[in-house]
Amino acid sequence: MTDSRTSTSSSSDSSGTLPVPPPNGVQGRISADGRHALPPDVSRQWRDVFWLALFVLHLILVGFVLGVLGYNRFKTKDRLNIDKYTMGFLENQAGLTEDYWPMYALAAGVGTILGWIWLSLLGSLANGMMKIAVHFLTTYLAVISVLCFWGKQFAWGVVFAIGAALQFLYVISVIDRLPFTMLVLRRAVKMVWSLPEVMGVSCGFMLVMLLWLALWSFGVAGVVALSLGDSGRWWLLLVFSISLFWTGAVLCNIVHVIVSGMVFLVLIHGGRDVESMPSKPLVNSLQFAMTKSFGSICYGSLFTAAIRTLRWEIRGIRSKIGNNECLLCLVDFLFHLVETLVRFFNKYAYVQIAVYGKNFNHSARDAWELFQSTGVEALVAYDCSGAVLLMGTVLGGLVVGTCSGVWTRIHHPDRVIMVGSTAMLIGMILKIRC
Fold first, then answer.
1. Domain that holds residue 63
2. Which one of 67, 194, 266, 272 is most buried, by most CB atoms within 10 A?
């Protein structure tokens, strides 16, 4: 629900709503206050079907491979005789799936608890939770770095030390934007909490995510126990981690589209209890998100977060260069390149998908043009609530990874980094879902 909060809050003007124009070729009706209302005869078509098929095929293949790898080491070593295909990379020691699966169960449990605590406190203590996410993350990264050096994991120690330094520099660069971000978060959380049925949908999708994580962790535990060299295990874990990230992003953005559709209807009709509200709006939003708009969600989930983050980071770098003309030209070139990509991979495209059922590229371009035509682009750029929520997500992942890593160190000290890093990913995915 992270992106839904940001999108709904960031697209508000002084009256609390932003006029949403009808899509090209569709004549919308105008309400009494001059806002556009969604016409009842907007036809929705299946969009981005290729990406829908690719995502479903990916789920089937990855799910099958995860099941095979987990079952291969469950209670009996190499029950499917997979080791004969890895003779060149075999190790003398190998474990069982159940040796590592409980550590991932701990990660899922801790991640779920942290996610609900975060969501609950964000509604009543938004300022405090934001300060924790911003400042405590830097400290936690530094502590993890010291522990990695102490455990002779020098490469990971350097990674976490660099992360702590970058986090500190980022906080310093956006410190003046935090008060506005607090205001945005409070308004967004208040809007979402006013729609309890949406919270129920979010709980349902979290249950789906937990079921997928059960299968994912079962297969990953089998990979960690596999009699394969560390390099082979890491490559398998990387592939499965990318798959988990995509799946988690898709589920998160489904909720994003549902929330966007519900909030749009509430704002455009002036309330959720008025007579003009369509019947079963939540069911209709859920149906469109899971069918005709599902391909667009799968497509956008691959790229949106990374490109959005890169855009704002380059914008911040350009504003701090000063008079270095050569470097300024280089950063300007990168900035325009990323600006072009943002036109096609814009997180606010999900609002257009929810309202009009467009494909992802069309929605992203229209959202971009809407911001430019209304003059709120600078306001959206100034808001860093997405970055703050990301900090909370990373912090939650680090806590989860630490818990599983400590348990792993007690029983399997040679698998601490492998289990801890993948458990951290589980924690981050569950935090995003909340």
1. 2-19+44-67+95-130+182-303+345-433
2. 266
